[in-house]
Amino acid sequence: MIDWDVAVSTGVRLVRPGPQVDLADARQAVAQLRELSVTAQGHVREFTGMEPLEPAGPAVVVDRPGWIKANVDGFRVVLEPILDRLGGERMNEGGAAQLTTAVGSRVTGVQLGAVLSYLAGRVLGQYELFLPPDPDGRAPTGRLTLVAPNIVHTERELDVDPRDFRLWVCLHEETHRMQFTSSPWLRDYVQQQMQEMLLASNIDAGDLLNRLRSAGEAVADAIRGGDGNLIEVFQSEEQSEIMDRITAVMSLAEGHGDYVMDAVGPEVVPTVAEIRRRFQRRREGANRVDKVIRQLLGIDLKMKQYEEGAAFVRSVVSQVGMADFNRVWESPETLPTIKEIRNPDSWIARVVRPAALQQEFGESPAGPPPGGGSADGPSQG
């Protein structure tokens, strides 16, 4: 259903080249990013009180084509088993159906490659959750990746101290690595939600036509300056419920990363306040075409959700401290729902206060109710 080779070749062909950097400066940037990624590990561990359960070496530093290839590999790990399952029925439908599937897979590969080529020029780094399995079983289950050309381009554009900016980025991405390496259930939870989202995507021809019509309206609305985006257009009601769970956990993860990268302090990143101010101003000052693309892909919507996630973290930590905030990483039942992200007091009342009462009266914590900790909480099924 997706031609992965076409996705890679399309993305690599369309992606813009990075900034002009002489060889010595490029080597210095790569070496420093690797060094700072290790430095950031200690700062994140000390500040958050979280402990990784697997070894973490230096970050992998890549260029834009390397980022595209890595992301296609990640998509394959998550999506290919489900796509094979969904597409298996078509194998017995005859030559015409198989030809349609083959053509459609190439078209989908081109679409995926085009989206990745756009993102490859903007992503500074990421923690890759889903890697092809290691035959020897020795490699870590995830990988921290930094996109050197984008980091260099951004620090030049912002006119900020390169070392401070590089460490600032590493603090954010190392926080993501800490989240997933200290909470062994979290990776499987995210993968499960993504796969459930895909399995809920079956729609009939009439519904598809309606959604395509709505997609056209969303594009027109975005160009006019409205709020239309393509993410919500193609979601069924069931998918919207799953997307709420995905949005909640990703808002938490990204908000936590933003909180840590700014809160570690000027002792570590002396110019952190100036970097954040200029970075935010740059984000808000994108050109009109870029704003339309970001909106259609749902990127601006996600940025808003990540701001909500950071506000959630700040509120909870200020009220109950870092140790009790870290209860979010204990299980799917202690994750905040999307409603709790927007109302941190409700998460504290559901997760932190009951645990404190049980401890005060010498009771062992009770297990969560079936399906999660609240009526709209996440579940594993």
Automatic annotation (TrEMBL):
<dbReference type="GO" id="GO:0008237">
    <property type="term" value="F:metallopeptidase activity"/>
</dbReference>
<keyword id="KW-0482">Metalloprotease</keyword>
<dbReference type="InterPro" id="IPR018766">
    <property type="entry name" value="Zinicin_2"/>
</dbReference>
<protein>
    <submittedName>
        <fullName>Zinc-dependent metalloprotease</fullName>
    </submittedName>
</protein>
<dbReference type="Pfam" id="PF10103">
    <property type="entry name" value="Zincin_2"/>
</dbReference>
<dbReference type="InterPro" id="IPR042271">
    <property type="entry name" value="Zinicin_2_N"/>
</dbReference>
<keyword id="KW-0645">Protease</keyword>
<feature type="compositionally biased region" description="Gly residues">
    <location>
        <begin position="372"/>
        <end position="381"/>
    </location>
</feature>
<keyword id="KW-0378">Hydrolase</keyword>
<dbReference type="InterPro" id="IPR022454">
    <property type="entry name" value="CHP03883_F420-assoc"/>
</dbReference>
<feature type="region of interest" description="Disordered">
    <location>
        <begin position="358"/>
        <end position="381"/>
    </location>
</feature>
